[in-house]
Amino acid sequence: MSDPVVVGTDGSAAGSAAVEWAADDAARMRAPLRIVFAADRSPYDIPKFSTREWGDALTRNAERVLAEAEALARKRQPEIEITTRVIEGAPAGR
Length: 94
What we know:
The protein has helices at 13-29, 51-76; strands at 5-8, 33-39, 82-88. With 94 residues, it is of the alpha/beta class. The protein has one domain: Rossmann fold (3-Layer(aba) Sandwich), CATH 3.40.50. Strands 1-2-3 form a 3-stranded parallel beta sheet, with helices on one face. The relative contact order is 0.25. InterPro entries: Rossmann-like_a/b/a_fold (IPR014729), UspA (IPR006016).
């Protein structure tokens, strides 16, 4: 099996375009596709506020974004293997 094509998304139009490109690339390479979402919780780590509530909302958002990205990739390239994952930490390039 080939190494996966890995793409990050944040649910934006640019993120969706990246998912489409990565799905096409994975199909060309006959490789699996891994879609990731970087969940950066540090901006919300404020002692006065409950991080649990923020964390739950961030997790739900990450899961929603990944589900939409997976559906987009499956529609574009239905034959490829696709996995999704939430990664804790700041996104690259920040």
